Amino acid sequence: MVAKREPERGDSSQQDDPDALRGEIATLRADLERLRAEQRAMEIRLAIMKGAAELVGKEPGADPDNLTSREKTTLIKDISETLGVNAESLLKEVGIARSTYYYQLKAMRRPDKNANLLSLVREAFGSSRRRCG
Fold it and tell me: Residue 58 belongs to what H/E stretch?
């Protein structure tokens, strides 16, 4: 067992000095804030990695580092909503330009111009015994 060391008489003057204690408290608070910021950054990086892996799936040759602009936009949108982070703060982390991000958001809101053809393709696929389409 390790005995707890009692402060010596010479150490008590340092412990009783209010300015030294305030300085130590300020240093500890700064360290705490730095560690919290690092933890938040690591949570964001982890969410980006998990989201990228989810987007590419388990297809052969899938590379989470090689996402399309649309996939990056989807990833940023999901992470910003999930973690409550500003989307613009994630742009550099994901590797997409701000203009590209907003262009993709706008493009994703537009209706699909080939939506009326989808029913015809499904019908042709069904009539070919689900062999081509």
Answer: none
Q: For residue range 17-76, what is the model confidence (pLDDT) as tens digits?
A: 888 899 999 999 999 999 999 999 899 888 888 888 787 775 655 566 778 899 899 999
Phi, psi (rounded to 5 degrees) for 4: -75, 130
Nearest Cα to Cα of residue 74 among 92, 54, 45: 54
CA-only gyration radius of the chain, Å: 28
Q: How far apart are CA 119 and CA 125, in angstroms?
A: 10
Measured distance CA(52)–CA(54) in Å, rounded: 5
Q: What is the pTM of this model?
A: 0.59
- Tokens linked to 131: 């062999």
